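Dear colleague,

Following up on yesterday's call, I've attached the two folding results inline so they're easy to grep. Please treat them as preliminary; we haven't cross-checked anything against experimental data yet. The first protein's sequence and structure tokens come first.
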Amino acid sequence: MVGVVGMALVVLGGCRRDLDIPPMEVKVVEAYGVKLDAAASPKRVVYVLLRSLRDDVEASQAWDQAKKKQAFQTSFALAAFQAMSHRLMDTPAILNARKGGEADAVARHVYDAVDHWAPIVGHYIRSFEADEQAATAKMTEVLAPDGRTGRVYVDAAHDSQQEDPAKAQSVTLVVEVAREKGVDGGEYWRVLKLGYQPRTKVITVSAPSRG
């Protein structure tokens, strides 16, 4: 289990700012009327995540720091801390930070990764449904054969009211998930990474004429 990290001093772009990093603990999360315990499916976890990310973006737009902090804390609590930390261990940024004596380098990078989730999806938040059933209807869950990792594909759009796909700006959000051991010994689905499914380009080839 990843340990608890308190206040961290971070240098970003030459500026120093304090980060109040919440405990990196995997446990039951309750938000938006949903209890994400060991029995919660990846879809339910992603549903709550998208709700919190929408709240995060809207709070930023409204300059509501209290609401933004609450939304971020929910998103952060849904992170796959162990899997994310494992991926970071041998990266140049972490190795260099540790050489410089920065013991909390992994925690800071995990925090930074989660902090980028809201900007990643910000253009499409209007299509994130508040109703759980409506939201999960837009999702496709695909698990690895070992049942330890998986992906949730989410249909999203900038303006889902538009019939023209080009104007709707439809995309497929890909949420990578992983099973994580909790502080209570149970296992929980948690979020590892957000991205988008690449668009495939259709090329039409005309058949040669037969003269």
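Below is the second protein, in the same order (sequence, then structure):
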Amino acid sequence: MRPDSIFNIHWRRLSRWLLLGTVVMLLWLLYPTVRCSIESLQKTSFAEVAEVTVQEEGFFSKWLGATKRCYKATPLLGQEAWKTYTFLGLAGATLLTGLIARFANRKHGI
């Protein structure tokens, strides 16, 4: 390709930046669930954990149950539409630019 070509893009670098954006959006979408889960963990006293009998739920099963309830309240793709579309767009663009980078590098022998 000519150096002044509009398609002379460093696809691998662009793919990495898009991957970073995808990870940031994933963390942003999971934040409400994590926050709710931590709050439910803090509400559980250690005295309750020490008194657990064999027939009762254990600490981790209670915490995982609370996490599932929190996720049902704010699922990953069930929040505001623009957040969902941004996350899916970044993920798709990451995949697309990664494939373009792979084929471009194969073509140039890199």
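For the second protein, one point worth flagging: The longest helix spans residues 11-43.

Best wishes,
A.L.
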